[in-house]
C-alpha cells in the first residue's frame, strides 16, 4: 500500500511538472527579452483590423494588455493615455489589447470595450483578443502587463516587460516610471535598466 501511494504521488508530481514546463497557466514559453515579435491582426474598437505592420514608421510600440473592469487596469488608464500622448510623436505609440473573455468576466465584451474607449477618450487602438492567442503568444499574465518593443533592422524586438511604474494602485506615489525610463533609454540608444519588473494586476480571464 505504501508503495502504491508513493507511485501515485510521484506520478502526480510528474504530471504537474510536465504542465509547468509546458507553460500552462503562466505561459512560460511567451516572449522574453531580445525576442522578435511576430505580427498579428486583431479587431480595434473602431471595427477595423489592426496589425503591428500598420506602424511601419514607428521606432517601437508600447504594447499594453489591459481590460475594462480590473481595478489595477483602471488605476493605470490615465497613465496609459499619458504614455501615448507623450511618446506617440516620438515614435513609440501605445497599442492596447484586451485578452479577457466576457464569458468568464462580465463587462469585457466588445461593445463594453467600445463604450470604455469612447468614454475615456482613448487616443490609441484598443484591440480585442477574442481568440486569446495573442496574449498567450506574448506570455502576458496580468492586466495591466507591458511589453515594450523596439524596431531593430525592421524587426520589433522585446526590450522591456513588466509594470508601468512602481505604484500600480496610486499614481500619486510613483517614484520610478519604468516604461518612461525604458523608452527614453531606447531613444538615446542606451540599454534598458531595469528591463524586467513584476507586473501587478488582475489575472487574465481567458
Polypeptide structure, described:
The chain folds into two domains: about 1-30; about 30-205, Glutaredoxin (3-Layer(aba) Sandwich). The chain is an alpha+beta fold and about 210 residues long. The chain is about 30% helix and about 20% strand. Residues about 1-25 have low confidence and may be disordered. The protein is globular. The N and C termini lie far apart (about 40 Å). The chain has helices at about 1-20, 70-75, 75-85, 110-120, 135-140, 180-185, and strands spanning about 40-45, 50, 60-65, 95-100, 125-130, 140-145, 145-150, 155-160, 200-205. The strands form two sheets. A seven-stranded mixed sheet has the order 2-1-5-4-3-7-8, with helices on one face. A two-stranded antiparallel sheet has the order 6-9. The chain contains six helices and nine strands.
* Structural category: alpha+beta
Alpha-carbon Rg, integer: 19 Å
Span between termini: 41 Å
Count the beta strands: 9
- Compute the number of helices: 6
The low-confidence parts are: 1-27
Order of strands side by side in the largest beta sheet?
A: 2-1-5-4-3-7-8
Query: What would the average pLDDT be, to the nearest integer?
Result: 89
Brief sketch in words of this structure:
30% of the residues lie in helices and 20% in strands.
Question: What is the strand and helix layout of this fold?
Answer:
Blueprint: H1 2-21, E1 41-44, E2 49-51, E3 60-65, H2 71-75, H3 77-87, E4 94-98, H4 110-120, E5 126-128, H5 134-138, E6 142-143, E7 145-152, E8 155-162, H6 178-187, E9 202-203
Parallel strand pairs: 3-4, 4-5
Antiparallel strand pairs: 1-2, 1-5, 3-7, 6-9, 7-8
Amino acid at each position: 500500500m505504501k508503495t502504491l501511494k508513493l507511485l501515485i504521488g510521484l506520478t502526480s508530481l510528474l504530471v504537474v511538472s510536465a504542465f509547468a514546463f509546458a507553460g500552462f497557466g503562466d505561459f512560460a514559453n511567451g516572449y522574453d527579452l531580445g525576442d522578435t515579435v511576430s505580427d498579428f491582426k486583431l479587431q480595434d474598437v473602431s471595427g477595423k483590423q489592426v496589425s503591428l505592420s500598420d506602424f511601419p514608421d514607428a521606432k517601437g510600440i508600447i504594447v499594453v494588455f489591459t481590460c475594462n473592469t480590473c481595478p489595477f487596469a483602471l488605476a493605470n488608464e490615465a497613465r496609459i493615455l499619458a504614455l501615448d500622448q507623450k511618446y506617440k510623436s516620438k515614435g513609440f505609440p501605445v497599442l492596447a489589447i484586451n485578452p479577457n473573455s466576457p464569458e468568464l468576466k462580465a463587462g469585457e465584451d466588445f461593445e463594453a470595450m467600445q463604450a470604455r474607449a469612447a468614454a475615456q477618450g482613448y487616443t490609441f487602438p484598443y484591440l480585442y483578443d477574442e481568440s486569446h492567442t495573442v496574449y498567450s503568444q506574448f506570455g502576458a499574465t496580468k492586466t495591466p502587463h507591458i511589453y515594450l518593443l523596439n524596431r531593430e533592422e525592421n524587426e520589433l524586438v522585446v526590450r522591456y516587460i513588466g509594470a508601468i511604474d512602481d505604484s500600480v494602485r496610486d499614481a500619486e506615489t510613483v517614484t520610478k516610471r519604468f516604461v518612461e525610463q525604458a523608452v527614453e533609454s531606447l531613444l538615446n540608444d542606451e540599454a534598458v535598466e531595469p528591463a524586467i519588473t513584476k507586473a501587478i494586476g488582475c489575472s487574465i480571464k481567458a
